[in-house]
Amino acid sequence: MKVKEFLRRKNIEFSLKRYFIDAMGAMAQGLFCSLLMGTILSTLGDQLGVSILSQIGTYAKAMSGPAMACAIGYALKADPLVVYSLIGVGYASNAEGGAGGPLAVLIVAIVAAEFGKAVSKETKIDLLVTPAVTLSVGVGLAVLIAPPIGAAASKIGSFIMWATELQPFLMGILVSVITGIVLTLPISSAAICQVLTLTGLAGGAAVAGCCAQMVGFAVMSFRENRWGGVVSQGLGTSMLQMGNIVRRPIIWLPAILCSAITGPIATCLFKLQMNGAPINSGMGTCGLCGPIGIWTGWLSPSAEAVSKGAVAITPSAMDWLGLVLICFVLPAVVTTLISNLMRKAGLIREGDLKL
């Protein structure tokens, strides 16, 4: 009972929701504010010849590890001294983890944050004890486990990309459908794609699946939610529909079927590759990050993509057509057609998609 009371007092909760949903979701936001925005700004700076944008982007990308760790600490409701100490922990974990750094940051930052929370405000020299414990546990653990974690995550991601190259039709369907479903669930598809360093054809399939969900729900729910729904779901997140999906799971079918259609079209017909920052693969049309990732990957491939053989290209008309169709047009058309048929059959009722 004393242990349970101590954990309750320290707000230490061992649960999948706290670690897999809250922490991972926060990690994705940290990635968004550092690596993703840095990539966008530096690409714009390079293409427009604005050196200050390139410089801002470079610094932002360099802080991805600390940003992820601090975001995780905030999500775990850690005290300020713990969150500040996680800056060093995040940097060490991301650096030691290599290509799989984000997964290392997730695991190590969670452990370090919980240890820091456990000792926080327990002594009269809290200013010394809390940072010392958080940093020692976090950096020490990063040195020990981040390299193998990073290597394992990188191998899994490489296997998915290899399988997609080998079987673009089947894997186009699987990657698109699974990533799209994860995007709409209260789990971070962006963080998962970054952890797996998902780029190339597999990244293109992931973008297709995410766009199918976001654009699909935005368009098929237009009669209930109008333009506000288009913006909140199409540029925000399809996760807003989770409450409705729990009540009526069948409303998810149009978007899932759409992702099963657009995924293999992306991989087989257009050979659409997403060689920007891997986080873009799991972003869909959120802030237009999926399409922007494809564009930045054409002009300036990410380090992860380059390590797997990607090179800069001058996009052709076919490339642009694929981007527009896969990310916007097909999701809107296909989900509208399927949802209208389902409405006529009474499978989707008026108000089922109301936010």
Structure description:
With 355 residues, the protein is mostly helical. It has two domains: 2-154, no CATH class; 167-344, no CATH class. The chain has helices spanning 2-9, 16-48, 51-62, 64-75, 80-97, 101-119, 126-166, 168-184, 189-195, 200-220, 222-236, 242-247, 253-269, 289-299, 303-307, 317-344. The radius of gyration is 21 Å and the shape is globular. The relative contact order is 0.11.
Give a brief rundown of this model.
This protein has two domains: 2-154, no CATH class; 167-344, no CATH class. It has 16 helices and no strands.
Give the helix/strand layout.
Elements: H1 2-9, H2 16-48, H3 51-62, H4 64-75, H5 80-97, H6 101-119, H7 126-166, H8 168-184, H9 189-195, H10 200-220, H11 222-236, H12 242-247, H13 253-269, H14 289-299, H15 303-307, H16 317-344
Give me some keywords for this one:
mainly alpha; 2 domains; 16 helices
Coarse shape: globular
Total number of β-strand segments?
0
Structural class by sheet pairing and helices:
mainly alpha
Mean pLDDT score = 91
Q: Low-confidence stretches at least 5 residues in length (pLDDT < 50)?
A: none
| Total of DSSP H or I helical runs spanning 4+ residues | 16
Helix content: over 70%
Order of helices and strands: HHHHHHHHHHHHHHHH
Report the radius of gyration as a whole number of Å: 21 Å
Tally of distinct domains: 2
Percent strand equals under 5%
Largest sheet descriptor: none
Terminal Cα span: 42 Å
